Structures are given as C-alpha cells and as structure tokens.
Amino acid sequence: MFVRRSAAVLAATAVIGTAFAPAALADESPGASPSQAFPSALYGSTDPTYDGVWRQSLALLAQDTVDVKPAKKSVDWLVGQQCESGAFAAYRPDPSAKCDTKTKVDTNSTAAALQALEALDASDAVTGAAVKWLKSVQNKDGGWGYFPGTPSDTNSTSVVIGALDAGDTDPKDVPSKDDRTPYDALMGLSVPCDETGGGAFAFQPDKKGKLAANADATAAGVLGALGEGLDTDPDEDGDDKASPKASQCVGGHPFTVEDAAANGARYLAGAVAKNGYLKSSLPGAEDQPDYGNTADTVVALAAAGRTADTEKPLAWLEKNSGTWAAKSGPAAYAQLIFAANATGTDPRAFGGADLVKQLGATGPAATSSDASTAPANGKSDEADASGEDDGGVSLWWIIGVGLVGGIGIGFLLSGRNKKQQP
Prior knowledge:
Distance between the termini: 14 Å
Structural class: mainly alpha
Order of helices and strands: HHHHEEHHHHHHEEHHHHHH
Helix content: 40-55%
Number of helices: 16
Number of strands: 4
Shape: globular
Largest sheet: 2 strands, antiparallel
C-alpha cells in the first residue's frame, strides 16, 4: 500500500522536479535545506512536503493501536493541518494561512488523518468535516482518485472506505451521483479470474481498460473490500472471514465484494508463499524486497482470516525489516506495528526489536507513562533535521503529482499500473 522513499521515489522526484514540477507544488514547498528545522510536533526528520500528514497520521494511529497516548502537540499539529473544507493536503507549512485553490488537498491524506483522529477521539467538528469533504469528491463510479476529479484507483478508494468506517459511516450508504457505492468501484477493479493474475486488484485500468494484477493495490483492495481500516485487530475466530471458496478464484454472477476480498487474499497468499515477501523493481535494476508492501500484505491476509498465510511473511519481516524501518522512519514503524497487531504479535518484541519504542523515538515523547515508549535518542520536542529517516513517503503521492503535472511516470515505478512481482 505504501512505498517508502526508494530509488523509484527519488527518480520520480528528479523527473518531476526538474522538468514537470507544477508551479503550485513548487510554491508550496518549504524549500528544505540541511539546516532547516521542521515542526517539533512532527514525526520523522525529513522534508514533510509530500508526506507530512500521512506519516503523522500513521504514527499517531499506530501509537493508539498499542495503547500509547501521543503527545498532545502532535495531535494538535495534525488537526491544525485541516482546511476549512474539512480536507487535508500532504503538508501545509503555514497552517495559519487559509487554504485556497492552490492548496493541493487529497483524499489519501484526508482519509489517513480521519482514521487517526477518530481513534484519538478528536472533535466531531473536525472528523465530521473530513467525512463530508470525502463524500463531496466521490467519483461517479463510487470510488476516489488521489486528487479530487482524478480517476478512481484501488488504493485511494480503499483508504477512504477505511476512513468512512472509522467515522461511523457505512460505505454502502455512500452512493455516488450514478448510485454506485465504493464497493462497486472496487469490484470493477478486481481482475477477472480467467485473466492473468485473476483475483488480484489492479491500481487502475490502463488506457485500453485492461486490468493488471498488482500486489500493492491488492493489499489495499482486500482491506477496502472488507471495510477495514489501516489498523486491523486480530481475527480471534480463525478463518471465519474468508470465503468458503477462498482456495479458488470466484467469478461469474452474482459477484460480491466479499468474493473480491477473498480472491484478493488468495492472490496475496500465493504471492508470498515461496519467499515470504513481495518484490519491487525498477527498469534496469535488480529486484528488491518490498518491506512495506509485505507488511501491508500481512495485514490484509489477517483481515481476510487467512492467519496461516501470514506466518511466513511475518517471520520474514521480523528477521529482515529492521534496517529498512530505521532508514524509512515513522510510517515504516507504523506499518510493522499494524502487521504485528493484526496477527496478535507483540510489537514490543518484534524479532527482538521494540517497534513501539523505535516509533516513539522519531517524534515527541508520548503522554503515556509507559517507560517502553520513551524515545531512545532523547528526542522529545525538536525534530532532528539531519536524520536519515524519510517518514515513509507514499507512492500515492507520486501518482498524484504525476496526475497534477499531466505526465506519465509509470515507467519509473514497479507498482500500481504494472504487475508487481511476487
């Protein structure tokens, strides 16, 4: 679901930044320099221009998931990023300035913030405004794109479904102008069983309307089809959520959203069965393990009730994800915490690491008196602007920037519109 600042992100940034950068995005950039300090309430220590709200939301939600009360100023910072409309942008360096047409609000930042703020019992005025805005930018097919008015994609639609559910709004009760629900949109993005990658979700149809299986989108799509948010609780009843036909791809008519979820989970189970992890690659580069999407796959499989299928990828993450998480920052730690929580694994003893403590070290000291949440590096109020973590930049931002800039950067990416390797 989320891709950290890897070679793909850096390459896309270079292309967009040098040749196609939209003026609005250039104007809104805080112009980071090695000596620039970012908001002390913010988790992560790198430039938040493209992922500030996203990584803050995941960090706060992950802390709530493990019963840690985040610092008040960190929650207040997130609330302060909201526009009068109820929407959130990826980052607003000056929250006191009113949002206008140049403010690039997006569905992903808004949905992530809504999930976090609902969990933290933010005021109804804040969360209600976010729900209202998300409803107002729903596409006719029932789904959502990254930016308002852009074509629906699996990832954006799914994170909005999770946000609506968190906001006590049943996605089935949110029809579009064409009387299509968010679940209708997801079913339309499910690859037919008789095609390559059948049962998976595609990110979006290609120009010819063809759907290509994508593991990243599938992990998101399974959660969305199940009506689940980012922080899925363990399934204590075993495989009761899984379709009885989960061992095979289910097609034909009628085709339900539950069938789509079961098909997607089946695809993911097969994708991680051999090595225990997903792969991502760039043209001309060797395949690399995709830690973030593997963590998301664990959450999706657990949500679908395929608990046995989570064992191998979870064990792989426990053994191999430490260096990646340390480099990638708060959103990465949050993803691992979500994976641990979904499987009933102790995030404070994850392959010998205390994920809760490590996440806490990337931001202000938590309000909780639990000693295990104290920052290991003493960071409590001031962000270290020279840190190595990148805050977990989402690939959704890349897709969004490409849409705004009017360019196609899919050739740079291993996911979304291309098949992702299992």
